[in-house]
Specification:
This protein is α/β, with parallel strands linked by helices. It has 13 helices and 14 strands. Helix 2 crosses helix 13 and helix 4 packs across helix 5.
Length: about 400
């Protein structure tokens, strides 16, 4: 038996960030949520015949020109709230937090998104640009320029906050602002920091994190091999579908290629999981649309945060969950070290035990969607207040 393709695709379609489910009406009421805030709907002109709808929010009664935080999404068709599940609106949560710290915030729909839900355009040319990642950076730059011209905004105090794919977008913009037609950002926050090449990232998501789960949750004696007892004990408590997928691979005699009654995780199990994911066909992973391969190829042309952020000498806050299995914590650690090596004098790294990719507390290998943990929001507020 092979690993269920549905499980592999769930891993693969998450890719370099966040690909939200296609549902509408998930954000609920907004009246009391924005109490004390001014909300201004905006339309941001971008190239290729696209204009992004968005919203600028800021505290009522605020005087003078305000610093503004521009929110840069994870991958996929994300709306301005980064709606990822019913009630899970990560950017809406972050925006309100920053507003309470005295900042204006710009949220905007990504290209192809026409409303919160997310609701998508029916124009394939808008949904599927030729160079999808480059277009994302170009659109982000347009949003940054727009933010700097807003009537209540101090144009010298435009900050960026990127999540997942947005960490690379923020790094590309901050690393070479002139190339993207923006002024140098006043500060950068990155959450769930990308590290490595797209191939490395997707390998971990499609194959490596499964092996990691076997090492951490099945391999009791830590010798890298699984006995029948370790397999049986490891399956206890897993959700039914996950248990069935593991059982199919771990109890298949064909997986035990040397016939010794034990499974070497990295040499016997790895090829089975790798083959089930179709990883050797990268970037053309089975079951995924052609645009996935184009996106992966395109983003690979651009530097990851550890390469681009060191070109930026302004303040940087790096946040990552220690149990993030999409953009592992090593990415934030490596980027922070690169900033130190480059001589940046104001960079802060905070990692959170038990926190996953959406910056919420959730089991590592069975994450449940949720909004950022209060500790994360407090750290963002503290950093913003100190860098106004």
């Amino acid at each position: 038996m092979k690993w269920k393709k549905t499980a592999v695709l769930t891993v693969a379609t998450v890719t370099i960030g966040l690909v939200p489910p296609a549902f509408a009406g998930a954000t609920g009421g907004s009246g009391s949520y924005w109490a004390g805030m001014v909300r201004e709907s905006v339309t941001i002109p971008m190239d290729g015949g696209w204009s992004a709808e968005g919203e600028i929010t800021y505290p009522k009664g605020a005087r003078g020109r305000l610093p503004i935080l521009v929110l840069l999404h994870g991958s996929g068709y994300n709306d301005m709230d980064q709606t990822l599940a019913p009630g899970v609106t990560t950017f809406k949560t972050v925006a309100r937090t920053a507003n309470r710290a005295g900042f204006a915030v710009l949220r905007f729909n990504k290209r192809g998104v026409v409303g919160v839900g997310p609701r998508l355009s029916d124009d394939p040319a808008i949904l599927d640009p030729v160079k999808p990642y480059e277009q994302t950076v170009r659109d982000a730059a347009a949003a940054v320029r727009f933010a700097a011209t807003a009537k209540r905004v101090d144009p010298a105090a435009v900050y960026l906050l990127g999540h997942s794919e947005g960490t690379q977008v923020a790094g590309n913009l901050a690393g070479d602002p002139h190339a993207w037609g923006i002024t140098k950002p006043a500060g950068v926050i990155v959450m769930g920091v990308i590290d490595g090449t797209p191939r490395q990232v997707i390998y971990y998501q499609a194959v490596g994190r499964t092996l990691g789960q076997l090492h951490e949750e099945f391999d009791v004696d830590g010798n890298g091999r699984l006995t029948a007892d370790e397999i049986a004990h490891g399956l206890i408590g897993l959700p039914g579908d996950a248990a069935a997928q593991f059982r199919a691979v771990l109890t298949d005699p064909a997986t035990d290629t040397d016939g010794d009654g034990e499974l070497a995780i990295d040499t016997e199990v790895e090829p089975v999981v790798r083959a089930a994911a179709g990883f050797d066909r990268f970037p053309n992973l089975p079951g995924l649309p052609d645009r996935f391969a184009r996106y992966i190829t395109d983003i690979g042309r651009f530097p990851a945060p550890a390469r681009d952020l060191p070109h930026y000498d302004g303040p940087v806050l790096l946040l990552n969950g220690q149990t993030d299995t999409q953009t592992v914590v090593r990415g934030a650690i490596v980027a922070d070290a690169a900033l130190a090596t480059a001589g940046n004098r104001d960079h802060t790294l905070i990692t959170y035990p038990g926190v996953s990719h959406l910056m919420n507390v959730t089991p590592k290998y069975r994450p449940v969607p949720g909004n950022p943990d209060p500790a994360v929001l407090r750290d963002i507020t503290t950093w913003l207040a100190a860098h106004r």
